[in-house]
Design brief:
Elements (H helix, E strand, L loop, with lengths): L12 H9 L3 H22 L3 H17 L11 H19 L7 H5 L9 H20 L2 H12 L4 H8 L3 H24 L1
């Protein structure tokens, strides 16, 4: 026998935000549950260390709760709005910090596949570390555009809105970032 899911479980993010704006804590908890991992992952990709990324995700959802009445569907999807909040919090932290050291190596390491032999696994990890290190060296805007579009699954239009630039500017940032990464990685492989 099939059991129907509660209406809240199938509600869109946008509908839940309308409920959050009215003070519905259950709707808020559902949004947090749906998006906290994505917010954390985006903060890590932009350049936050694990503890900082947790703080950014928490602060982002605090802002979702406290500014829920300011959001409207006219401004775009909830996920794009949340990505904008996370990105802005990361930018603020980078501006405040004396150094924007990035722990990309930790974020880039994938779980080892037991079917891969040790040598292949070591090579894959080294490559992931090289890519992570080179991504971390990109200029902030290029790294953020790449993080949003490639790792965060955000559209170019949403990334443009989040970064406060045109779609063409985002596309240019992505082209430059990818070109720079390809050149750097190619020169590393020649060594």
């Amino acid at each position: 026998m099939l059991h129907a899911q509660p209406a809240e479980a199938t509600a869109t993010d946008e509908k839940l935000m309308g409920q959050v704006a009215q003070g519905d804590r259950a709707a808020y908890a559902q949004l947090v549950s749906r998006h906290v991992n994505r917010a954390y992952a985006l903060a890590r990709r932009i350049g936050s260390r694990p503890a900082e990324a947790e703080e950014v995700a928490q602060e982002a959802f605090l802002r979702v709760w406290t500014h829920a009445t300011q959001w409207s569907e006219d401004k775009g999807r909830f996920s794009a709005w949340l990505s904008r909040i996370v990105t802005n919090l990361c930018i603020d932290r980078m501006r405040r910090s004396e150094h924007a050291a990035v722990a990309w190596e930790e974020a880039a390491e994938a779980v080892a596949d037991p079917s891969v032999d040790l040598e292949s696994d070591l090579h894959r990890r080294q490559l992931a570390q090289q890519v992570a290190a080179e991504v971390a060296r990109l200029p902030d805007r290029q790294r953020m555009a790449l993080s949003l579009c490639h790792y965060g699954g955000v559209s170019n239009a949403d990334a443009a809105d989040i970064l406060g630039v045109s779609v063409g500017a985002v596309e240019a940032l992505l082209v430059r970032a990818r070109r720079t990464l390809a050149q750097r990685l190619q020169s590393l492989n020649r060594l």
